[in-house]
Structures are given as structure tokens and as C-alpha cells.
Design a protein that fits this description.
heterodimer; A: globular; B: mainly alpha; globular
Chain lengths: ~240, ~230
């Protein structure tokens, strides 16, 4: 990873987010829906639907980050190379922030679409459960002392393996599930372009954050090692 | 089958210590019984409400007592640093893990054996209407809690805030298990029992346990060795 990665992705993200804001608010059509009789449907989302582009853009990379952390934790446990661990921890830190965005925008969506702030809708439930695993990971990293890296790596791997079970569970669960199936899946063609551009710009944003986090952890470690060497040699007090 | 014999020996060692002191069993069971008493005051006490809430009570009791038992069972290995001795013993580390998980399963099941009849007794809950699937799902749940719990309780041995961190790690990972367990129990105690749903959740738990058992076997050694 050279020093151009962060500025590159940050610039791409800035341009991409600006472009997708333009597309979302000026190009993408408002959300109308009509019922079978051809009259206007009272439950249309209109302007509120716009939050969808930001919600799903973050949700994509929340799920992506779970796998990035899980796979790099496998790398860390099998090689004991701290560079893998840096990636896992950076990706989780960023994913916690992304998950917070997903849950907040999700509940705003819920208020507009279903008139409740929280609905046990399958995808929202799944995001919440994954987010809890990630928050647990961050807490372990912070409070588990010297062996935090191993324990957190184990948690990331277990969390990744748990994903298919959570996925299967929320689909079948006896919890109240909303009749909102397919809100995300069936996109009209006019919204598709803006949607993928917003997803791509949030990917760049995610990458910029993760890479800069990895670089700062790495610099921290190098500094610590240099300091220890200096102390050993008697150069530093 | 040397591995299983070694595992059984490690489990028997734990259980024998426990049989002599009875510390964990007595405290866990008493705690479980206290939970049942608290539930009977905390939740509305009419038959319909009980039917809806008793599955949750059962699985919350298992979750709470399970974490307490796990923490205490591994604390014993820490007090005289015997975990290191166990890991140095000339048996596969896998056997140590399996033995620990087996002993923990036994402890969680002991609590279940006491709590389930107590719930049925105090709350007049129809828990034993269909005993065979209920026993199956509780056993599978206990295995899952013990397997995942043993991995993380063992890695947390030397961490100062382990008592707080164990549930922080375990509960998010165990959510599918608890949901499967409560849904299955709910399907069994419903006025018209839904055996298809119960069977679906039992299968779900079986696959869940198998997946995490394989994963734990694979990860345990690299997690406990410094």
C-alpha cells in the first residue's frame, strides 16, 4: 500500500458522493406507487425514498467488512503476522461506524415507510445482529489487554461463520416480520444508475478509511518498536 | 479412539472436582431457581401470557447460568495456572478442548434439568407436553453454549475483565442459537403444537452446533497458545 492510496480513494469518494447526491436528488425519480385500481397509493414514500441510496450504500460495506475482518483474522491466526490483524481491526472499526449509519437511516426509513422507528424487518434485524458482533469485537480489542488481538480474531471468525445462520434465522424467525419484502430488490430502471454509483462511492470511502487506519496502526507500532530499541540502546531516556 | 478417551478423561477430571466441592452446581442451580422465582413475579401470571413467555424464560435461564458456570469452571484452571499444565500434557490439545466442552455441557444440562420442571411447576407452563423434542432442543442448545463458550472462556483466562467480556463475546455469537431454541420451544408449548416448525429449528440447531464444533476444533489451538 503506497502513500497515494488514501488520497486516491478519498478523492474518488468525495467526487462519487457529490455525483451521487446530484443524481439522487435531481435525476432519480420520486417514488410513486399506484394500487391495482390505478389510483394513487397512500403509502408511497416520495422524497423519503432518497435515504435508501445512503442506507444500502452503507449496508453493502457493513456486510463486506464482516467478511474482510473474518478472512484477515483467519490470516492472522494462521500466520501470526500482525499486518493481517491491522486490516481486521481497521475494517471492523470502520464497519461499526457504517453499521451505525445503516441502523439510523434504517429506522428513519422505518418511520416513513411503516410509521414505527424500529421494525423487526429481516434485513434490518440482520444488520443489527452483525453490528452487535462488531461492537463486541471493538470492546474486546479495547479491554482485553495483551491477548486482545487473538480473542478478537476468534470473535471475527466466529461472527463470519455465524452470518449464514443469522441469514437463515431472520427469514424464518417467529419474530414479527414486516411485509416489506422486496423493497430493496425491485429497483425501477431509472434509479439503478444512481444506486450503483452511490454504492461504489461508499466503497471508495470505506477503502480510504480502512487504509488510513491500517497505516496509522502500522506507524504506531513502528514508533513503539523504535522507541523500545532506543531505550535498549540507551539513546532515549 | 485415543482422542475421545483423553477427552473423556479431561471431562471426568472436571466433573470429579465438581462432584467433590459441588460449588458450581449448587450455585448455578440456586441462581437458576432464583431466576424462575423472579420470572413468576416479573411477568403476567395468566395461562395465555405464560405460554408466550415461558420459552424465553427457559432460554434466558440457560444463557445466564451457562455464562456463570463457564466463567467459574475456567477460573479453576486459572487459580493454580493448571491450564498451562493441561495444555502441556502429552495429549492432543483437541482432547483438552473436547473434555472441557463436555464437562460444561454436563453443567448446563444439570441446570436445565432443575429449571425446566421448576418453570413448569411455578408457572403451570405446559413444558412437558412433548418431552422428547424439548429434551432434544435443550441438549443441542447446551452443546452449542458449551462449545462456543469453552473456546472463549479458555482464551479469556488471563484477561482481567473476563467476567464482563465473556457475555459481550458470547451473546452476539449465540443469538441464532437462542432464537432457534426459543422458537422451537414456543412451537412445542403452543396451544396447537407446530411440529414442523419445531423440527425445522432442531435441524437448524444441529447444523449450527456441527458448524461451530468444527470451527472451534480448528481455531481452539491457535487461540489459546500465546
Amino acid at each position: 500500500m503506497n502513500k497515494f492510496a488514501v488520497p486516491l480513494f478519498a478523492t474518488l469518494a468525495a467526487v462519487g458522493i457529490a455525483v451521487s447526491v446530484y443524481l439522487v436528488f435531481f435525476v432519480a425519480p420520486l417514488e410513486y406507487s399506484y394500487n391495482e385500481a390505478g389510483t394513487f397509493n397512500g403509502s408511497s414514500l416520495f422524497f423519503n425514498q432518497k435515504i435508501f441510496y445512503f442506507h444500502v450504500g452503507h449496508a453493502f460495506w457493513l456486510f463486506g467488512a464482516v467478511f474482510v475482518s473474518g478472512l484477515s483474522s483467519i490470516g492472522f491466526l494462521s500466520t501470526r503476522d500482525p499486518r493481517w490483524d491491522d486490516v481486521a481491526s481497521a475494517s471492523t472499526d470502520v464497519a461499526v461506524a457504517f453499521g451505525a449509519v445503516v441502523l439510523l437511516t434504517g429506522s428513519i426509513w422505518g418511520k416513513a415507510a411503516w410509521d414505527v422507528w424500529w421494525q423487526w424487518e429481516p434485513r434490518l434485524t440482520m444488520s443489527l445482529l452483525l453490528w452487535l458482533v462488531l461492537v463486541g469485537y471493538v470492546l474486546v480489542r479495547k479491554f482485553a489487554g495483551p491477548s486482545a488481538d487473538r480473542i478478537a480474531a476468534g470473535m471475527a471468525i466466529f461472527g463470519m461463520v455465524g452470518v449464514p445462520f443469522i441469514y437463515k434465522m431472520v427469514g424464518q424467525s417467529s419474530h414479527p416480520a414486516a411485509g416489506s419484502q422486496g423493497v430493496v430488490a425491485t429497483l425501477p430502471p431509472g434509479e439503478r444508475g444512481s444506486f450503483w454509483i452511490s454504492v461504489a462511492s461508499f466503497l471508495c470511502w470505506y477503502l480510504a478509511l480502512v487504509i488510513s487506519r491500517v497505516q496509522s496502526t502500522r506507524a504506531e507500532r513502528e514508533l513503539r518498536e523504535l522507541r523500545e530499541r532506543g531505550l535498549d540502546l540507551g539513546v532515549l531516556q | 479412539m485415543g482422542l475421545l478417551r483423553h477427552a473423556a478423561r479431561v471431562a471426568w477430571k472436571d466433573l470429579r472436582i465438581e462432584l467433590r466441592s459441588r460449588e458450581i452446581v449448587y450455585t448455578m442451580v440456586f441462581f437458576g431457581a432464583l431466576l424462575v422465582v423472579i420470572y413468576s413475579f416479573a411477568f403476567p401470571n395468566d395461562a395465555r401470557a405464560i405460554r408466550g413467555s415461558v420459552p424465553g424464560m427457559l432460554w434466558v435461564s440457560l444463557a445466564f447460568t451457562g455464562t456463570i458456570g463457564l466463567g467459574r469452571a475456567f477460573d479453576r484452571e486459572r487459580e493454580n495456572d493448571t491450564m498451562r499444565a493441561l495444555l502441556l500434557a502429552p495429549v492432543p490439545r483437541l482432547a483438552v478442548f473436547l473434555g472441557k466442552a463436555l464437562a460444561t455441557t454436563a453443567l448446563v444440562l444439570t441446570v436445565a434439568v432443575v429449571c425446566t420442571p421448576l418453570l413448569a411447576l411455578f408457572l403451570q407452563a405446559p413444558l412437558f407436553a412433548h418431552p422428547v423434542p424439548l429434551i432434544l432442543v435443550v441438549v443441542l442448545g447446551a452443546v452449542g453454549i458449551a462449545v462456543i463458550g469453552s473456546v472463549f472462556a479458555a482464551t479469556l483466562l488471563k484477561v482481567r475483565s473476563r467476567d464482563v467480556l465473556l457475555p459481550v463475546i458470547l451473546y452476539p455469537l449465540l443469538v441464532p442459537l437462542f432464537v432457534a431454541g426459543t422458537s422451537c420451544t414456543a412451537a412445542l408449548v403452543a396451544e396447537i403444537p407446530n411440529f414442523d416448525a419445531a423440527w425445522y429449528w432442531i435441524q437448524f440447531l444441529g447444523i449450527y452446533d456441527a458448524a461451530f464444533l468444527v470451527l472451534s476444533i480448528w481455531v481452539f489451538e491457535s487461540l489459546v497458545i500465546e
